[in-house]
Amino acid sequence: MRLHARIVAFVSGLGVLLSAAGATTGSAQESHIGNLTGHAAAGKKLYRRYCVGCHGQDGDGAGENAAWIDPKPRDFTLGVFKCRSTPTGTLPTDEDLFDAMSRGFVTTNMPQWLPLTGQNRADLVAYIKTFSPKWKTTKAGTPITIPQEPALTIESVLHGRELYQKMECWKCHGSRGHGDGPSAATLTDNKDLAIRPYDFSSGSRFMCGVTNRDLYKIFMTGLDGTPMPSFADDIKPADGWDLVHFLRTLQPLETPEAGVWQAWLASHAKELKPIGPPGTGQ
Amino acid sequence: MVRWFVKGVGGAPWSWLVSCVVTLVCLGAAMALSGGRSKAYTAYSLAVHKTKAIPAFARKYNLPCSACHTAWPELNAFGQRFRDNGYQLMNDRDSPIWQNPSYIPVTFRMTPNLHRESATKQPVDAVPGDSTSGLVSKTVTQSGFDLSGMDLWTAGTLYKNISFVLLPSSDNTGAFHFEAAFVRFDNLFSNRWVNFKVGKFELDNLVSEKRFLFLSGNGGAYQSYHFLPGGDINDFGLGDNQIGAELSGHSDNSYTRYGIAVLSSTDGQVNLPTSQSYDAFFTLSHAVDAGSMGVERLGAYAYLGRRPTYFQTSGGVPIPGTGTGNKPFYRIGLAGDFFFGDFELLPFVMHASDNAFLATGTAANVALPPGAQDAKWNSGFVEAHYYVNPQFVVTARWETVRMSQQTDPAAPTDLGNVDAYSGGIRWYPIMFSRAGLSWHTEVSAVRTRGSAFAATDNVWTSSLFSGLDFDF
Hints:
The structure holds two protein chains of two kinds.
Chain A: H1 2-29, E1 30-33, E2 36-39, H2 40-50, H3 52-55, H4 94-103, H5 118-128, H6 134-137, H7 154-166, H8 170-173, H9 212-221, H10 237-249, H11 256-268
Antiparallel strand pairs in A: 1-2
Helix pairs in contact in A: 2-5, 4-5, 7-10, 9-10, 10-11
Chain B: H1 2-8, H2 13-33, H3 39-50, H4 56-61, H5 65-68, E1 69-71, E2 74-75, H6 77-84, E3 106-110, E4 113-127, E5 130-146, E6 150-159, E7 162-170, E8 176-185, E9 195-201, H7 223-226, E10 242-250, E11 256-264, E12 278-289, E13 295-307, E14 313-314, E15 317-318, E16 327-340, E17 343-354, H8 356-360, E18 375-389, E19 392-405, E20 418-432, E21 435-449, E22 458-471
Antiparallel strand pairs in B: 1-2, 3-6, 3-22, 4-5, 4-22, 6-7, 7-8, 8-9, 9-10, 10-11, 11-12, 12-13, 13-16, 14-15, 16-17, 17-18, 18-19, 19-20, 20-21, 21-22
């Protein structure tokens, strides 16, 4: 009887250990997006169908098409991602990866995978997380807090413009936001490959979204793996919205920000100090 | 199984069998000699080191075939959205300015093959060469190596949101025609619900016959799309590309789609050979996200058309384009595309009607044969695909056509009825962004009620087909 009890205890203990091991592995093998739970095993088949051509069999961004693609496909083995809601240096949430996959990247070859079912995309997120050991040892970061957007005013836009000058955004993005600043040609990513700064005149979509909140997130979290840093330590949350309002005026769109800006500019253009290196007349 | 096969191939059993074996051995040898440590490695070797050609869109966007196709040429949901967006992924790679000036978006597709065709109860001279010897019922069989027609397909964007297709296509003798040619203005008024195209194009059939996975003589067309009762002078085929203009639209993920087309009543023939009449085609479909099952789509369609029954003549010879005495016909029905994981089911149903003048081949300015009435029939099919993996698919199809009203009330009610069966496999040893090769093997059989000898005869036609379907 005692022997039997020991066997039961041993088996139970083993079961607990195996369960724990399974749970540890499982966390990297699954993704959780809202009500969806993605499974890596299902994602593997989808990855082969949709992703392997660019991101490669091993997720290292060395697919058969990588040689012809600029910018290069993401190397999932590094566990470094541009578009996150989490602070710089941390792993993105499953939702971040899901959103990136659904949204695509307007300035790269990565298309919008919107026609895939939500479950399919969740499965792919789970599989993508198997490529880097980081996902087994590190938790995803905690999403940053984004304060309520204040009312749009010309003061906000002008203050944002000052920040654009002060934080030296113009060095990469250029004085008009065309991605042609003096440092633009020298930029490289974390794989030492040339990379271009975002050109705000190119349209309505940013690298990581289309809304003002998306834009706020981009410069508050930074685009990891690129020269675009996080300004979370340098810009106060309220000031961040001012910068958003100014950046919106750089787009060739009829945004509310552009309306406020153009109205002010019509009578105050001469008051503007140029953006760029001190002493230049841009 | 072997006994059945040998018995089934009848007239030319051993030559067919030997040819099949030789083809298989040659293909296997080619694979092995090209590198052969594993299937994947073999395929890679063939693609990269021996193939220089490039499929059109895959080259432009650097996506594998399987991104847009369940198994090429059939589109998946992602490919459907790409097509609906005017061959654009909706990123800045869409504009032609992104392309190297030497880039020409051309794809060639052809299928060298070995096939066997057989038809029972055919009228054959009792003594070969002697037309007076009387006709006897015989089975006619042909087999041998052959070529398919060739598609020379080019498509893309002329400018952001202006796309085009040009598809010169030949039969297997090299005689070309324009299978498709159109310009499409996409996302008009920055609205994806408003797209307009003009030219010759495939009807927006939910189940496309141009992109399907059957190639054999009997299985390579949907009976439902082309069926006409005996003696009917209507030339319309739902699977035929038509000439006209189409207004279409779709939701962001293309789950909801519509199309309205106005078409010349010529069944896609150029030079306005018939009349100045116009047809109309309407489609509407909606898909739902079924989670891990996939995207489930259901749609409805209606084609309303007219065809002339006689022409103005000159010296008794019809003058092209002067057709008159137009009489109506229609095709209406439902179609679906349902996924159950790796299993895809494509159901299709149709109700069709041809006016009595068309069905009897009677000019509208003369009286109909006594008792003649509209010809009506119902048809449908269920097609199944099982995707073992993105490079291997098993296909099967059952199809039926049932006359519901004969134009001649005295005719047997089942005269002209059709049952068709097809099955096959497609293996894609090469499926890369720069070339595609599929080894396609298919068997199909069609039973039609009524022969030249008796209305109660069942005529069987069958096809065995094995070919190398390549696209570059």
